[in-house]
Design a protein that fits this description.
Layout: H1 37-55, H2 66-77, H3 79-84, H4 100-112, H5 116-142, H6 145-156, H7 159-164, H8 171-188, H9 194-211, H10 219-229, H11 234-261, H12 278-291, H13 313-317, H14 332-338, H15 342-355, H16 364-385, H17 399-415, H18 420-442, H19 449-469, H20 472-478, H21 482-507, H22 530-538, H23 549-556, E1 562-567, H24 569-579, E2 583-586, H25 598-606, E3 610-616, E4 618-619, E5 652-653, H26 659-668, E6 671-674, E7 677-681
Parallel strand pairs: 1-2, 1-3
Antiparallel strand pairs: 3-7, 4-5, 6-7
Helix pairs in contact: 1-5, 1-6, 2-4, 2-24, 4-5, 5-6, 5-8, 5-17, 6-17, 8-9, 9-11, 10-16, 15-16, 15-17, 15-18, 16-17, 17-18, 18-19, 18-21, 19-21
Length: 687
């Protein structure tokens, strides 16, 4: 099948020709040559290999992030919960993200029955789709299936991709939709197709409904690339972009209007918002407030202890942090997840722009470089400057951009491997890959120590050979011809990819659960002393840990709308998954959402809507006590609003978010202790 193109440079048959023979080809004559047999086989291997690797033993990740798993379970049980992304089938409150990701997982649960597999398999299949889109996008602009295969393979062997496309966070569907937007934009470029550009707008509209503003961070790159490259008048380009913007607004705005039109009394509260509106969530908690650092941990100090207690500094450090600073993209867990090819991709972007400097405005390769290169830079700078809470896995958002611009750079250098620019550029690219892979692997020096030295040796030798080839006298003496240059380039690129491939291979078989999964081999166990004990007790707060069988039986035996109420969405999600009952999450994810109010909670109790009220209890080590309580204090109280310690010497901390509700329940109902939790039966007579 022959596909017309604008300003393509050559067919694969001309790749071995000297650079002076490479000239732009008109739209009517630029075609993608028929696939050779090995290319068809390689594409099948890439697609099937990605599917097998990502689907194999995927249930090792169990429920992944229980917060989103509970919402997927709820949506598999109730259509309204599916529509709004409710945390519970009773539709008290949503998760703090839009529901596109929940739609996919919950629908799968409705069709196949909810399970780890029904929830996670769609995520893995999204990875296959993203790899296929990368292959299609790069193949179209370079007229080289080899370049497309490289782009797809690089995406598949990026550690954060292997991590998050086998997980249940909304990042996977968001990145697939962002990749689809880039693909549609590249399809729009050759003929200035407003239809393909409108489809890009639709894709980004649904990316917005997956993770709000983060899904739109690619938008400036796509818009600028079309404005620069599309082969039509400036007026038409602007009109087309306005049409795509309208498509984006329609594909995302319908849901916003739905939340406005639907009566608040019959839909769940939109978690993370201060006033139960979607746009407050977009612009506040999940928008500028997050970027400016005004919403991490809900504005509370996560280490705020009851008066008279303090977590030692050594233990506090054990919790780690999100990390900040201009080098964030290259350090810590983020470095392991995404940075393997980041220096090389930045260099590749520059090299492609230089190599295509004299090409016409409508040059497709340069247009694709703008799409992926600007996407990479815009998102990378935004993540580096982000002041609020940022998980390392957020960087999944630039994985397709890195893969795309890297593949474009390698393709351009391959075409020019017979001249000085191509050889020097190839040497620089390979050195950047090898040296940075060595640096990253050095941070985990006890794991496969031979690998970093092998990568460094092969890439340095390949780079030296390419540099010698760039000097005519040295090339003749060393007998380095174009064929030898090709071998050096291929060997250097493969060696440079080895670190990312190895870390991806180490990531796939490991079990990843909780809110902050990490890549690579498992970390060696460390004796953290009090920190381990403290974390074990705090696991309930994060939706992890085992639920006591006696408590599970109590909740399953209820016949109320909500089997229980507990502060925060994390523990509510854990209880839901353990008991398959609806649990009210007081205050949402951070406990700061203003629902329910005390009168609302009292009405639900009087109307027999809630079975139990549950409060976690954390036993603080005696060594964490300060010398004495503040002078004049009768009952030590947590400044953040938790309960008085029932016994100062016992060191029991009840980190409840809504103190009004807790105090009312404690004053009117008798507590019992089950599995380290204080449990109040709200169906019993109040006293």
């Amino acid at each position: 099948m022959r596909l017309p193109r604008v300003t393509a440079t050559t067919t694969e048959a001309a790749e071995s020709a000297p650079p002076e023979s490479i000239v732009p080809i008109a739209a009517e004559t630029a075609v993608l040559p028929p696939a050779r047999r090995w290319e068809r086989v390689a594409l099948v291997v890439l697609i099937l290999g990605t599917a097998i690797a990502y689907l194999w033993n995927i249930t090792v990740n169990q429920m992944g992030n229980s917060f989103y798993a509970a919402a997927a379970w709820s949506g598999s049980k109730d259509w309204k919960a599916l529509l709004f992304g409710s945390l519970d089938p009773g539709n008290f409150i949503t998760v703090d993200k839009p529901p596109v990701s929940q739609w996919v997982m919950a629908l799968s649960g409705q069709i196949f029955g909810f399970s780890s597999a029904s929830m996670l398999v769609p995520q893995a299949l999204m990875a296959v789709a993203a790899v296929a889109l990368m292959y299609g996008a790069i193949t179209r602009v370079t007229l080289s299936r080899t370049a497309g295969l490289l782009a797809g393979a690089v995406l598949a062997v990026t550690p954060v991709v292997a991590l998050m496309f086998r997980f249940n966070n909304p990042d996977a569907v968001m990145v697939l939709l962002m990749t689809a937007g880039a693909y549609c934009t590249i399809r729009a470029l050759p003929r200035a197709s407003w239809r393909w550009l409108a489809l890009a707008g639709v894709a980004l509209g649904f990316a917005f409904l997956a993770k709000m503003l983060e899904g739109l961070m690619v938008l400036p790159a796509l818009g600028l690339a079309y404005l620069v490259v599309a082969p039509t008048t400036l007026r038409n380009r602007i009109v087309h972009l306005l049409g795509a913007a309208a498509a984006l607004l329609i594909s995302s705005g319908w849901y916003v209007l739905l939340t406005i039109a639907w009566p608040e009394s019959s839909r769940p509260y939109l978690a993370g918002s201060t006033n139960n509106t979607f746009m407050d969530l977009v612009l506040g908690y999940n928008g500028f407030a997050r970027y400016l650092g005004q919403n991490h941990m809900g504005g509370k100090n996560p280490f705020q202890m009851p008066e008279g207690y303090e977590i030692p500094h050594s233990v506090r450090q054990g919790f780690g942090g999100f990390g900040q600073g201009h080098d964030r993209m290259f350090t810590g867990e983020i470095g392991f997840e995404i940075s393997w090819l980041l220096p090389a991709a930045l260099l590749a972007f520059v090299l492609v722009l230089i190599a295509r400097g004299r090409a016409p405005r409508t040059d497709l390769v340069r247009g694709a470089a703008l799409v992926f290169g600007l996407w990479m830079i815009i998102d990378g700078v935004a993540f580096s400057e982000m002041k609020g809470g940022m998980h390392a896995y957020y960087t999944l958002a630039i994985a397709p951009a890195i893969a795309g611009v890297f593949a474009l750079g390698v393709h351009e250098l391959w075409q020019r491997r017979a001249d000085k620019f191509g050889r020097i550029g190839s040497a620089a690219l390979i050195l950047s890959m090898g040296i940075w892979a060595f640096v990253v692997l050095q941070r985990n020096a006890d794991w496969q120590s031979w690998l970093r030295w092998t990568i460094l040796a092969v890439t340095v030798l390949a780079a030296i050979g390419l540099l010698l080839a760039a000097v005519p006298v040295a090339a003749r003496l060393a007998r380095i011809d174009t064929r030898a240059t090709s071998v050096l380039l291929v060997a250097g690129v493969l060696a440079g990819l080895a670190g990312s491939v190895a870390y991806t291979a180490a990531t796939l078989p490991e079990s990843h659960t909780g809110g902050g999964p990490s890549v690579g081999p498992p970390a060696p166990p460390r004796d953290m002393g009090a920190l381990n004990a403290f974390r074990g007790q705090m696991s309930m707060m994060m939706g992890g840990g085992d639920v006591d069988p006696k408590l599970a039986d109590l909740l399953r035996a209820t016949n109320t709308k909500w089997s229980a109420a507990i502060d925060r969405s994390g523990p509510a999600a854990g209880l839901e998954l353990a008991t398959h009952t609806s649990v009210m999450a007081i205050g949402g994810f951070t406990s700061e959402d203003p629902v329910p109010t005390l009168p609302q909670f009292q009405d639900d109790v009087r109307n027999h809507q809630i079975g139990y009220y549950i409060v976690p209890e954390v036993h603080l080590p005696d060594s964490w006590r300060t010398d004495k309580a503040p002078e004049g204090a009768k009952d030590p109280k947590d400044a953040a609003g938790t309960t008085p310690l029932p016994d100062k010497n016992a060191g029991i901390w009840r980190p409840a978010g809504n103190k009004e509700i807790l105090d009312w329940v404690m004053a009117h109902y008798t507590e019992q202790h089950v599995g380290g939790l204080a449990v109040f039966d709200l169906t019993a007579a109040a006293h």
